[in-house]
């Protein structure tokens, strides 16, 4: 899987963000939404705690959350939500459904938003994808993976990036 060349609109700037890490870093890409009652907050807390566990290496971990519910996760809402989990983040609100579907396809992700009797129902996967500077997916955190396991993987991946430079 590769996200090379794939961009999603970043908020609040409204500019395209390419889904790849900066050199010598990793980017965690996550598809979710702010109204999620369980999967998203649990995953984001685990990522936050994993970053705490790796100390100074956390300065080389960036997070990009792509909302699968762009109608409700506006340019004002999504950045505030993500900032409660990390100081380094990209709040990505797809400008079109096509932009979202292209990004999802690059990662093998999927989502749906439906309205039933006036109630919004959202379905999405819970995997977080770890991307390198080429846009290649180099690891995945399935939903439910604990912070210590994430921290172990991040430490290995970041140390590999240091050794290959």
Task: Offer a quick outline of the entry.
By secondary structure, the protein is α+β, with helices and mostly antiparallel strands. It contains four helices and nine strands, in the order βββαβαβαββββα. Helix 1 packs across helix 4.
Describe the structure.
The chain is an alpha+beta fold. The protein has a single domain, classed as Glutaredoxin (3-Layer(aba) Sandwich), CATH 3.40.30. It contains four helices and nine strands. It has helices at residues 39-53, 77-83, 97-107, 147-163; strands spanning 7-11, 16-18, 26-32, 61-67, 89-92, 111-116, 119-124, 128-131, 137-141. The strands form two sheets. A seven-stranded mixed sheet has the order 2-1-5-4-3-8-9. Strands 6-7 form a two-stranded antiparallel ribbon. The two termini are 23 Å apart. The mean pLDDT is 93.
Structural features:
165 residues; two-stranded antiparallel sheet; 9 strands; 30% helix
- Number of strand elements: 9
Sequence of secondary-structure elements: EEEHEHEHEEEEH
Total domain count = 1
For this structure, the CATH topology is Glutaredoxin
The overall pLDDT, averaged over residues, is 93
Main sheet makeup = 7 strands, mixed
Terminus-to-terminus distance:
23 Å
Basic shape: globular
Structural class: alpha+beta
Major beta sheet, strand line-up: 2-1-5-4-3-8-9
What is the radius of gyration computed over CA atoms, rounded to a whole number of angstroms? 15 Å
**Count of helices?**
4
Give the DSSP E fraction (strand runs of 2 or more residues): 25-35%
């Amino acid at each position: 899987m590769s996200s090379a060349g794939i961009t999603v609109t970043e908020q609040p700037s409204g500019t395209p963000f390419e889904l790849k890490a900066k050199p010598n870093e990793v980017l965690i890409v996550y598809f979710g939404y702010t109204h999620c009652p369980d999967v998203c907050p649990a995953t984001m807390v685990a990522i936050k705690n994993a970053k705490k566990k790796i100390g100074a290496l956390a300065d080389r971990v960036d997070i990009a959350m792509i909302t699968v519910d762009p109608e409700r996760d506006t340019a004002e809402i999504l950045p505030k939500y993500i900032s409660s989990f990390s100081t380094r983040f990209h709040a990505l609100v797809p400008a079109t459904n096509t932009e979202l579907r292209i990004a999802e396809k690059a990662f093998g992700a999927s989502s749906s938003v439906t309205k039933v009797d006036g109630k919004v129902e959202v379905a999405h996967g819970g995997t977080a994808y770890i991307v390198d500077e080429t846009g290649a997916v180099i690891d995945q955190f399935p939903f439910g993976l604990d912070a210590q396991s994430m921290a172990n993987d991040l430490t290995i991946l970041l140390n590999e990036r240091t050794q290959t430079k």
